[in-house]
From TrEMBL:
It comes from the Bacteria. CDD domains: GT4_WbuB-like. This is Glycosyltransferase family 4 protein. Keywords: Transferase. GO terms for molecular function: glycosyltransferase activity. InterPro entries: Glyco_trans_4-like_N. Residues 16-197 form the Glycosyltransferase subfamily 4-like N-terminal domain. It comes from Ideonella livida.
Amino acid sequence: MNILYLNHYAGSPALGMEYRPYYLAREWVRMGHEVQMVAATYSHVRARQPVAGPERVDGIDYLWVDTPAYQGNGLGRVRNIWAFLRRVWAQAPALVARQRPDIVIASSTYPMDIWVARRIARLAGAVLVHEVHDLWPLSPIELSGMSPGHPFARLCAWAEKTACRDADLVVSMLPKVHQHMAERGLDLRKLAIVPNGIDPAEWQAAPAPLREDVAATLAVARARGHLVVGYAGSMGRPNALDVLVEAADRLRYEPVSFVLVGDGHERERLVGRIHEELLERVHWLAPIPKAQIPAFLAELDVAYIGWQRVPIYRFGIAPNKLMDYMMAGCTVLHAVEAGNDPVAESGCGLTVAPESPDAVADGLRRLSHMSHRERAEMGQRGTAFVQAHHTYPVLARRFLQACEPALARRRAL
């Protein structure tokens, strides 16, 4: 089949996040399908930005659509989104003529790409799929305090309802969205759950060596006999890293070291706070390439992931970094209250209350009192869980299997 994958923020191992579109597309290419990825030249989640135009990456045909750079979540990002959608809309006839897609996937985190994807699908007579990463406008409303009456929130709500009405299939990474989608008009027979995952091949080869500053920081913590607690990922408000910093303050006289690797909107403020509060055992280090993540995680005693206490997580969570933690065999401390909890389901660590520095500090104390063998057994349970349910070869097949009824209906017309 020919698959057109519309994802504003799509990346690759060479460029950085987001990775899911790349891994699904690569598996589909390996299965014999053709994939056209359409993405923007600028995304705040990438480590490096591509050049506008076509590019072939591991068998996937990328089309990088020229968009302006931006910072933060203000008008600059809105202009970036508008430029991407407007330019892809204009190229829709050419995309259809060149690729003749059988499936068109709208997958840009925000839902407004559904109108562009619907135009392409109708021109091609293709199956239209809406892929749900986050629930918009609920995400900016509940996570960032945006008013439901804000024009952007209204636009997102309109797009979400359009997707529920017009898509042949809705694929959600979040596992508990059924009621929400039904309330927006979706026939739940058209809903499929396909969570995030990992590429098992990346964990079979010897990991790339760690950057010197990261390796040295971890070595010092180990030499001191400390419990090494790590975090690898974005540093934004949803990651609730202030809670980890406050837990570190409570543990400042206990044998625990914290190593944070990543970047994001909150990085500068968090680093300033670490210095101002003289948290000498909390170390922030610049992002490392994805190929070094396995080596970093292998050096940790505990991997941390935290969330805000917000109602939107009742629909479930699907964090990429947690899949990496579990595949690496890490013992995980998970600060969350959500509709699902892979840590509790797999038994790979401890779950504590979110937004509670005391709960995080207590959880780390409990893990520090366990033997190395007990923590290793936890980590092994996480690896087994991911291998059974969250590898991209499995998820890519599940995605296309969910498309089959809609494809059959289209072919019967």
